[in-house]
From TrEMBL:
SUPFAM superfamilies: GAF domain-like (SSF55781). It holds the Pfam family GAF_2. Residues 32-163 form the GAF domain. It comes from the Bacteria. GO terms for cellular component: cytosol. Belongs to the free Met sulfoxide reductase family. This is GAF domain-containing protein. InterPro entries: GAF, GAF-like_dom_sf, Phosphatase_reg/MetRdx. GO terms for molecular function: L-methionine-(R)-S-oxide reductase activity. It comes from Phocaeicola plebeius.
Amino acid sequence: MEASFKSTLTDKRQRYAQFLEQFAPLIEDEKNEISVLANTSAALKEAFGFFWVGFYLVHEGELHLGPFQGSVACYRIKKGRGVCGTAWAEARTQLVPDVDKFPGHIACSSLSRSEIVVPMIAAGEVRGVLDIDSDQLATFDETDREYLEKVVDLLVKTLYQPA
């Protein structure tokens, strides 16, 4: 299966809508968590050119680095630490226009300037987070939040809900 997620659309909402249309069949009926998250990272990176996109998964009381696209990253993050740990602790999306102003930000890359982190919640429990970084300030907005939460909802339904 080969799919291209590159788009010529310039409107962000239209690009996300197009992405979701292409993304749903890519992960449909696949239950291998690592495989699905790896392809999700690659698809988001290709579609939007994000600086860093990937997943941290809850494992033994910490977030552990999962599939990603971009430069090397932190291996583990404690609950409540940094943007990812805060998204996990609060079980809600974190939208950070300037990571240097976020209390306790963990600088895995000094080039990261803004960030959005969306928790993956199944049966009331955070299973992991989608983490996307930009090398520009204030890259992410409410449109990103809305559509990335839809991406995560689709992931959760595919991976963590019984067929």
